């Protein structure tokens, strides 16, 4: 399924003002949608979830084409102090269906969160064929960052190794795009393969 969501205070009109505090991922062979919600303050909130089977989605469709499948009323009796908002991600975190369609594999990573402690972290991806790959990285506010100083890439055979060196403590969004190398030259729009929270 493709999921989208809106988190907002229960006394407000429907909006997505608190989406920064929801972490959505697909689990169990992408058949289970998982939503981790951490409101920044005490109170009552609505989590409204929209969904649609991926096979019914057309490329470039907006979220209005997803159906509202449930609305949950949540009560936060005690909020964590100093909670950091997460980067906004329109799709569930982790590999997309395209990643699996291209028969890609991750070697040293399970789940959509890459944790580094005071240094760098490698992400190794393997494919059965030569891939065209690009990537971007964003900070928690959604500002695109200069990837040259943060992410480097090394190709060895069918293995692609990304070395990630965050510039500071914080949360970042790494988006990897790619497709098998086409036979003809030209400009190609690379589909999203995966989004990771760093």
UniProtKB/TrEMBL annotation:
InterPro entries: Ig-like_KY, Transglut-like_Superfamily_Mod
Domain of life: Eukaryota
Positions of the KY-like immunoglobulin-like domain: 2-87, 97-198
Coiled-coil stretches noted in the UniProt entry, renumbered to this chain: none
Protein name: KY-like immunoglobulin-like domain-containing protein
Organism of origin: Medioppia subpectinata
């Amino acid at each position: 399924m493709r999921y989208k969501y809106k988190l907002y205070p229960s006394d407000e009109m429907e909006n997505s003002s608190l989406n920064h505090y929801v972490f959505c991922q697909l689990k169990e062979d992408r058949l289970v949608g998982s939503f981790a919600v951490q409101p920044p303050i005490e109170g009552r909130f609505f989590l409204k979830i929209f969904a649609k089977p991926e096979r019914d989605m057309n490329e470039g469709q907006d979220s209005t084409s997803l159906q509202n499948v449930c609305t949950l009323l949540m009560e936060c009796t005690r909020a964590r102090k100093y909670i950091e908002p997460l980067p906004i991600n329109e799709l569930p975190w982790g590999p997309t269906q395209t990643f699996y369609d291209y028969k890609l594999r991750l070697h040293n990573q399970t789940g959509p969160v890459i944790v580094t402690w005071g240094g760098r972290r490698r992400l190794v991806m393997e494919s059965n064929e030569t891939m065209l790959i690009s990537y971007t990285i964003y900070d928690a506010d959604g500002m695109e960052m200069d990837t040259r100083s943060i992410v480097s890439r090394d190709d060895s055979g069918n293995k692609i190794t990304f070395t990630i060196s965050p510039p500071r403590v914080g949360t970042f969004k790494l988006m990897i795009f790619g497709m098998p190398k086409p036979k003809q030259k030209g400009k190609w729009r690379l589909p999203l393969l995966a989004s990771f929270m760093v």
